């Protein structure tokens, strides 16, 4: 077997990965056809998830590569348990820390740089360029800020194994595998935040699959590196969920409710609207 020669210390990590892969392959082959059960042994859970992913069209090669050596991340669980309500501040307090002159200045500069692209996206999807710039800036400082540093597969597998929202994150885990399967991002670029959010506007994997647009035409939806893909995909999410072109999007409007698909927090959506307004001044 692949793990029979694991005595050398310098090979310990490689052997652990080989052992995990062999264990996963064996469990996938032997496991009965039933849904993955949260809690319990983590490797058994991954094997069940592997079977579910295969049933949804993910290749065994992608699954074994993605799951090799994966363990639960206690830091992700700790963060998730204490991350209850981000918005303890009032709207005014929160917006004052987000809608700041340096961000406004950079966003205006980038609006000029990407004027043709933004115009094309706005015409096609009906979402104002100012709102797209607001989202792009608030989420990752236009790709220059923190997009997360955690391996997405490990993060989401950890959250899926936890029984509080297992159904949600089991779906996200399979979606993350599909991103790799489609060739949109290599496994090394599947790096994100504490809930598995990816890219410059922080899409969960299921949203990446559902709303992602290959707007630069290179055959891949790349929300980490491609500005056209980032902006078009962000606009597409809003359009698909009912965005009304040309209509206002402040609090109390239909478009403000559509923005709930982006973020459920009223304070965050009001901040998005404020940022967009500042870009029109």
Automatic annotation (TrEMBL):
Q: Does the keyword Signal apply?
A: yes
Xref: InterPro entries:
Lysozyme-like_dom_sf (IPR023346), MltB-like (IPR043426), MltB_2 (IPR011970), SLT_2 (IPR031304)
Q: Mind listing the UniProt keywords for this protein, alphabetically?
A: Signal
**Domain of life where this protein originates:** Bacteria
**What Pfam families is this protein classified in?**
SLT_2
Q: Which GO molecular function annotations are given, in alphabetical order?
A: peptidoglycan lytic transglycosylase activity
Q: Which residues form the signal peptide?
A: 1-35
BP GO annotations: peptidoglycan catabolic process
Q: Carries keyword Signal?
A: yes
Q: Where would I find the Transglycosylase SLT domain in this sequence?
A: 42-250
> Which protein are we looking at?
Lytic transglycosylase
Q: Supply the source organism's classification.
A: Bacteria, Pseudomonadati, Pseudomonadota, Alphaproteobacteria, Hyphomicrobiales
């Amino acid at each position: 077997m692949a793990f029979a020669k694991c005595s050398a210390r310098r090979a310990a990590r490689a052997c652990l990965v080989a052992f995990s892969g062999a264990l996963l392959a064996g469990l996938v082959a032997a496991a009965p056809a039933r849904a993955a059960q949260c809690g319990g042994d983590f490797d058994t859970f991954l094997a069940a998830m592997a079977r579910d992913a295969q049933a949804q069209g993910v290749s065994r090669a992608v699954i074994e590569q993605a799951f090799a050596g994966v363990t639960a991340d206690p830091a992700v669980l700790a963060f998730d348990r204490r991350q209850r309500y981000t918005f303890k501040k009032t709207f005014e307090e929160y917006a004052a820390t987000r809608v700041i002159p340096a961000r406004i200045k950079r966003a205006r500069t980038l609006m000029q740089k990407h004027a043709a692209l933004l115009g094309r996206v706005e015409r096609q999807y009906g979402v104002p360029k100012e709102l797209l710039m607001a989202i792009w800036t608030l989420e990752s400082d236009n790709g220059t800020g923190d997009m997360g540093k955690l391996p997405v597969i490990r993060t989401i597998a950890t959250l899926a194994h936890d029984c509080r929202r297992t159904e949600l994150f089991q779906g996200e885990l399979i979606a993350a595998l599909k991103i790799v399967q489609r060739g949109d991002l290599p496994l090394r670029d599947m790096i994100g935040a504490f809930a598995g959010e990816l890219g410059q506007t922080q899409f969960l994997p299921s949203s990446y699959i559902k709303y992602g647009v290959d707007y630069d035409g290179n055959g891949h939806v790349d929300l980490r590196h491609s500005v056209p893909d980032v902006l078009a995909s962000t606009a597409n999410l809003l359009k698909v969920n009912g965005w009304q072109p040309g209509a206002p999007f402040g609090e109390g409007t239909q478009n403000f409710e559509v923005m709930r698909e982006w973020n459920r927090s009223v304070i965050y959506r009001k901040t998005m609207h404020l940022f967009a307004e500042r870009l029109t001044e």
